[in-house]
């Protein structure tokens, strides 16, 4: 009999529910509840140790890869993708800062921050990271740019392959240790949140947050297609209709990579040339993260309001700018964009291994499929724009004038 494999999201939901239930069981002695809390504490120390290595492994290779390729075409694709990601972050913060205080009241914030003290771990193991997060970021960006420059001089392949293999090792560690351990980690933390009595207030907030996030994602994707249609002087509604299978595929697979073949076929139907669709769609699957940043910024803003922490525009803009770069340069982190964002939460005053970060991981991963669907849908809108840029340049060079209002031949050149 074939065994049914339970996915990560169902495991996380089960861990959250069980954590809430166990935390409310007054019949259990405190020492029993402290066992999963101790495991979570040990896992948190391990995660703290791995985070700087994640930055080094992903950011160096990400920057080195992004600066190699088809010159201006790569630059245009990256610029549009990064711009879309940043705009998504800014809009998410703006809406969140206006709407969320309507239901995250001062009374609720006070209830969360003044909830009972949680249980302590039975024991801890001192495991200090080899580098702090700031040092790892600076090291990664300097070396990434340096290796990119060397590769431009036909050098540096040895050190590039070293960090590429290092990145593969980090991916292996995350896939075999960190990601499978997340449900246990989250279970222990939700036991503590439930024990303190703050979980009810938190859950009463986040179902509303997710409704706002989903609306922002859908509106953003529609806006990208409308912009692409106006730029190409074509009707965007057919593009939106064509994208439905890609959106559904991303919802089901929770993977941008798994949706690439479907997205390429959709791009072909949209009239995007073969050269562009086979270049832009796979690239955007890793560098365009409109849906993901919308969720991350919305959730971060919500918890900052909830815990009565600063969330002013200047602070959040710095976080959005850094997060936009980090998510573009570090797309390989399993578990979605939240794993790439984790090391940079300290920018807004959130510990990368504390209970708030754990809450963010849980909330993000339970709706990750919607963010992924928004990401990949926007990829095809970007492909339409880049295709127009590409062909307009070529047509201008060859003195060709396309028929107004008609899509460019998808197989030209």
UniProtKB/TrEMBL annotation:
<dbReference type="GO" id="GO:0005886">
    <property type="term" value="C:plasma membrane"/>
</dbReference>
<dbReference type="GO" id="GO:0032329">
    <property type="term" value="P:serine transport"/>
</dbReference>
<feature type="transmembrane region" description="Helical">
    <location>
        <begin position="206"/>
        <end position="231"/>
    </location>
</feature>
<feature type="transmembrane region" description="Helical">
    <location>
        <begin position="162"/>
        <end position="186"/>
    </location>
</feature>
<feature type="transmembrane region" description="Helical">
    <location>
        <begin position="342"/>
        <end position="365"/>
    </location>
</feature>
<protein>
    <submittedName>
        <fullName>Na+/H+-dicarboxylate symporter</fullName>
    </submittedName>
</protein>
<feature type="transmembrane region" description="Helical">
    <location>
        <begin position="43"/>
        <end position="67"/>
    </location>
</feature>
<keyword id="KW-0812">Transmembrane</keyword>
<dbReference type="InterPro" id="IPR036458">
    <property type="entry name" value="Na:dicarbo_symporter_sf"/>
</dbReference>
<keyword id="KW-0813">Transport</keyword>
<feature type="transmembrane region" description="Helical">
    <location>
        <begin position="79"/>
        <end position="104"/>
    </location>
</feature>
<dbReference type="InterPro" id="IPR001991">
    <property type="entry name" value="Na-dicarboxylate_symporter"/>
</dbReference>
<keyword id="KW-1133">Transmembrane helix</keyword>
<keyword id="KW-0472">Membrane</keyword>
<feature type="transmembrane region" description="Helical">
    <location>
        <begin position="279"/>
        <end position="307"/>
    </location>
</feature>
<dbReference type="GO" id="GO:0005295">
    <property type="term" value="F:neutral L-amino acid:sodium symporter activity"/>
</dbReference>
<dbReference type="Pfam" id="PF00375">
    <property type="entry name" value="SDF"/>
</dbReference>
<feature type="transmembrane region" description="Helical">
    <location>
        <begin position="313"/>
        <end position="330"/>
    </location>
</feature>
<feature type="transmembrane region" description="Helical">
    <location>
        <begin position="12"/>
        <end position="37"/>
    </location>
</feature>
<feature type="transmembrane region" description="Helical">
    <location>
        <begin position="133"/>
        <end position="150"/>
    </location>
</feature>
């Amino acid at each position: 009999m074939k065994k049914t494999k339970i996915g990560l999201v169902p495991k996380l939901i089960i861990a959250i529910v069980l954590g809430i239930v166990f935390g409310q069981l007054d019949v259990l002695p405190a020492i029993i509840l402290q066992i999963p809390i101790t495991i979570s504490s040990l896992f948190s120390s391990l995660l703290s140790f791995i985070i700087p290595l994640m930055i080094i492994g992903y950011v160096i290779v990400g920057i080195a890869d992004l600066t190699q390729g088809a010159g201006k075409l790569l630059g245009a694709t990256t610029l549009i993708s990064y711009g879309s990601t940043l705009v998504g972050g800014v809009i998410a913060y703006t809406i969140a800062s206006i709407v969320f205080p309507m239901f995250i009241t001062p009374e609720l914030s006070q209830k969360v921050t003044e909830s009972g003290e949680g249980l302590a771990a039975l024991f801890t193991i001192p495991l200090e990271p080899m580098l702090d997060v700031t040092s790892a970021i600076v090291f990664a960006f300097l070396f990434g740019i340096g290796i990119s420059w060397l590769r431009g001089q036909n050098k540096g392949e040895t050190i590039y392959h070293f960090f590429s293999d290092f990145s593969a090792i980090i991916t292996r560690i995350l896939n075999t240790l960190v990601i499978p351990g997340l449900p246990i980690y989250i279970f222990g933390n939700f036991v503590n949140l439930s024990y303190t009595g703050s979980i009810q207030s938190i859950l009463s907030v986040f179902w509303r947050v997710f409704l706002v996030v989903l609306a922002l994602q859908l509106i953003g994707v529609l806006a990208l297609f409308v912009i692409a249609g106006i730029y190409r002087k074509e009707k965007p509604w057919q593009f939106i209709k064509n994208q439905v299978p890609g959106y559904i595929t991303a919802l089901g697979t929770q993977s941008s990579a798994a949706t690439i073949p479907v997205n390429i076929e959709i791009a072909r139907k949209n009239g995007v040339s073969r050269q562009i669709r086979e270049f832009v769609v796979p690239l955007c699957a890793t560098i365009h993260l409109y849906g993901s940043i919308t969720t991350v910024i919305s959730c971060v803003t919500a918890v900052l309001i909830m815990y009565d922490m600063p969330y002013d525009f200047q602070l959040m803009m710095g976080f959005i700018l850094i997060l936009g770069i980090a998510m573009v340069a570090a797309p390989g982190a399993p578990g979605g964009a939240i794993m790439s964002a984790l090391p940079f939460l300290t920018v807004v005053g959130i510990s990368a291994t504390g209970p708030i970060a754990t809450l963010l991981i849980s909330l993000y991963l339970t709706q990750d499929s919607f963010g992924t669907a928004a990401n990949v849908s926007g990829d095809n809108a970007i492909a339409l724009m880049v295709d127009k840029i590409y062909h307009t340049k070529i047509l201008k060079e060859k003195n060709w004038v396309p028929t107004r209002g008609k899509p460019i031949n998808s197989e030209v050149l």
